[in-house]
Design brief:
about 425 residues; alpha/beta; Rossmann fold; Alpha-Beta Plaits; 5-stranded parallel β-sheet; 16 helices; 18 strands; flat; phosphoprotein; Rev_trsase/Diguanyl_cyclase; Sig_transdc_resp-reg_receiver; diguanylate cyclase
Length: about 425
């Protein structure tokens, strides 16, 4: 990432360069005047530019026009700004303006650069039947480098969400034909939890209860139209920061700290509520419990650091083989489990045999150390029973696989 800093104050340059390079993997080029800024912009492509509004050879914001003319996102530094200048800068399409007041001002600049970098990989869907409103919101989002999608009503929004994976923020207008904003949010929340997607409601309706109704229906925030640029960007940024925090808390609670696969608790919490439904509907479900053979020997011979690497590599192979279709978890130590909805025990055994053979055939490579490892697997198919009972039967099949020589798959009767 390459950043251009157009600033004639050596103190500000030193401070910002230090803070940027400390917190981001970036290169900072400095131009103390307009002429050098022009030369650098002609020679390089920049992720973003931070420029002083008033330079000795550019006292009227010419540096901002120069940066924007090269299609580079621009953050403006200024000692003062009146209402007319502010309106002009926002109309020109800057990312934001920051007053030169104290260290916290420059921390905001550094944080803003990080936000722009995050936004490049963040998909946002706008659902609004007004083309003018959609384009206005789209332009604001694209100034902050979001990947933006549009839908002209609630039904089209649901189609986009079904078709496009990884959308992190939905901005939904209240007044839409067919499915309005409330109904859209309710349907979205049936599929997407708060740690998966954030929602901001919009409306130009003057009903003072809208904010509470939107949030009660599952929105994270609400904005009354018309809104100013800064409020919109702050609300979007705060909402996505909250989403990221919620996601991190969820990961800490549900993902194994070492391997990144789900925890035992997540596995039981996910499957237990669905088990009786599977039985009533006649849906096949098979469980495979697996144990890395002679794992203690790895720790004793090569140390626990290598043991940890083996567990991470084994989990990676599991995720590659099953992660897109099935639920997998680490039960503890070197023991893992996979729940295979839709597979009977014969199909599950065949799938597990392929995985077992793959583990046996491909060495675990860590630098110059090459380890040939195997895995024992026990499979059980769901009957009219509890999850605990199903797990015990799979565990018994695993015990049989280990007692009969390891490196094999056994199926519970």
């Amino acid at each position: 990432m390459r950043i251009l800093l157009v600033e004639d104050s050596n103190i500000v340059v030193r401070l910002l360069r230090h803070m940027l390079t400390q917190l981001h993997d970036c290169t900072v080029d400095v131009a103390p005047n307009l002429a050098e800024a022009r030369e650098l912009l002609e020679q390089n492509t920049y992720f973003a530019a931070v420029t002083d509004l008033n330079l000795p050879d550019a006292p009227n914001g010419e540096s901002v026009e120069l940066v924007l003319g090269h299609g580079t996102p621009c953050i403006v530094l200024t000692g003062s700004l009146d209402a007319k200048q502010r309106k002009k800068l926002l109309h020109m399409g800057i990312v934001d303006y920051v007053y030169k007041e104290n260290r916290f001002s420059y921390e905001y600049v550094v944080k803003l650069i990080g936000t722009l970098e995050r936004n490049r990989n963040t998909k946002v869907l706008i659902a609004d039947d007004s083309l003018v409103s959609r384009r206005f919101v789209r332009n604001l989002l694209e100034l902050h480098l979001f990947e933006v999608l549009e839908a002209e009503d609630g039904l089209k929004a649901l189609e986009v969400l079904q078709r496009v994976p990884g959308i992190r923020l939905l901005i939904a207008d209240y007044n839409m034909p067919g499915i309005d904003g409330f109904e859209l949010i309710l349907r979205v929340r049936e599929k997407y939890a708060r740690e998966d997607m954030a929602i901001i409601g919009l409306s130009n309706d003057t009903d003072e209860t809208l904010t509470a109704r939107f949030i009660k229906n599952g929105a994270n925030d609400f904005l009354q139209k018309p809104f100013v640029h800064e409020e919109f960007h702050c609300r979007v940024s705060n909402t996505l920061e909250s989403l990221e925090m919620i996601r991190k808390l969820w990961e800490q609670a549900n993902l194994d700290y070492l391997t990144g696969v789900h925890t035992r608790r997540y596995f039981f919490d996910k499957l237990n509520p669905s088990l009786q439904t599977f039985v009533k509907q006649g849906t096949c479900l098979s469980i495979a419990m697996m144990d890395i053979d002679f794992f203690k020997r790895v720790n004793d011979t090569h140390g626990h650091d290598i043991g940890d690497e083996v567990l991470k590599e084994f989990a990676r192979r599991m995720h590659e083989a099953f992660g897109q279709h099935f639920t997998l978890a680490r039960l503890g130590g070197e023991e893992f489990v996979v729940a295979m909805k839709g597979l009977d025990k014969q199909k599950a055994q065949s799938l597990m045999e392929g995985f077992r053979a793959n583990v046996e055939a491909i060495p675990f490579q860590f630098g110059e150390l090459s380890l040939m490892l195997t895995v024992s697997i026990g499979v059980a198919e769901l009957g009219n029973e509890t999850l605990d009972s199903l797990m015990k039967r799979a565990d018994m099949a695993l015990y049989e696989a280990k007692s009969q020589g390891r490196n094999q798959t056994r199926v519970a009767p």
